[in-house]
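Field log, afternoon session.

UNIT: design team B
ACTIVITY: writing a sequence onto a fixed backbone
BACKBONE:
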């Protein structure tokens, strides 16, 4: 996506726009913050934008009310997992972000890892578990610390950093309450970074890398969205050559999953070897006041408002109506 693209978009040509926000996932609160930010930004640029909450309204109303494209500001299940994308495909209403398959695969951390491994991309060792006993066995195999998390949730919801055998049962039970699919993952100690990608195919470009410095290294739900204690460094201040290597890795991870429009990948850099490891990719990233894609875009010379318009202009369908 070219940085000047938002400047050349005629707001009237975008038609009547629905900003999908809220929804029924565990990330509803964050989605409402993202959606209201996007809504205000689009309106400030003259876009005929309206809020639409799929938890309160039937999706068919989008078609009946003549909406011509959608900005998806939903996070988590029933919004980021291919379900809403599929509904919009059936109605022929173009939407922002990756298509049905890419959204579904990226939401499933196990499927994402399997594809990345098959393509030779580095991601931490993992095990899928079905019980507290299997979680304990995974801890013995993967070592301490170990991450236990639901496979199809975001924003670190249901995630536990396990440092002892005694924590395994509670960690599994917390994750399993949110998703029947639970995974354990090797913990990589080092710098935590994230990198957005904008665009599609050969035009896709990685934005500046952001290094995240959270209180006591705990970048949890609270520190992501509701405190000002976490530091976000952009420029990231990484050693020479590392940022370019991470951008190349993230771009390949994005294209491997056939993402389009935009996404953001999270990466850990091993403190000892400086090797980057892919954790996951978010196909409907946050757009709140604490969110990372707007921060990275600003460092690249793209304002929040122009970013929203540029993303909306890329709204498309897997299959043309």
């Amino acid at each position: 996506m070219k940085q000047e693209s938002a400047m050349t978009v005629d707001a009237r040509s975008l038609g009547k726009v629905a900003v999908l926000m809220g929804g029924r996932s565990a990330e509803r609160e964050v989605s409402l913050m993202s959606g209201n930010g996007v809504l205000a930004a689009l309106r400030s640029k003259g876009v005929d934008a309206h809020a639409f909450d799929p938890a309160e309204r039937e999706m068919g109303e989008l078609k009946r009310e003549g909406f011509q494209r959608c900005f998806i500001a939903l996070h988590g299940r029933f919004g980021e997992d291919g379900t809403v994308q599929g509904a919009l495909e059936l109605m022929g209403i173009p939407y922002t972000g990756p298509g049905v398959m890419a959204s579904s695969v990226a939401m499933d951390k196990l499927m994402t890892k399997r594809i990345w491994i098959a393509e030779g991309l580095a991601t931490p060792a993992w095990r899928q578990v079905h019980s507290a006993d299997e979680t304990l066995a995974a801890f013995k195999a993967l070592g301490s610390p170990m991450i236990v998390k639901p496979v199809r949730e975001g924003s670190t919801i249901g995630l536990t950093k396990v440092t002892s055998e005694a924590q395994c049962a509670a960690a599994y039970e917390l994750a399993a309450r949110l998703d029947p699919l639970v995974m354990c993952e090797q913990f990589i100690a080092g710098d935590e970074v994230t990198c957005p990608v904008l665009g599609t195919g050969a035009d896709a470009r990685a934005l500046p890398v952001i290094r995240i410095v959270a209180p006591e290294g705990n970048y949890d739900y609270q520190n992501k969205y509701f405190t000002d204690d976490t530091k976000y460094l952009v420029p990231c201040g990484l050693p020479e050559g590392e940022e370019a290597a991470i951008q190349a890795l993230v771009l390949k991870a994005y294209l491997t999953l056939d993402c389009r429009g935009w996404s953001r990948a999270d990466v850990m850099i091993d403190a000892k070897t400086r090797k980057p490891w892919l954790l996951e990719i978010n196909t409907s990233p946050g757009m709140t006041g604490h969110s990372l894609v707007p921060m990275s875009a600003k460092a690249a010379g793209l304002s929040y408002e122009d970013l929203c318009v540029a993303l909306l202009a890329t709204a498309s369908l897997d299959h043309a109506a």
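LOG NOTE: DSSP finds twelve helices and 13 strands in the chain.
NEXT ACTIVITY: expression trials, pending approval
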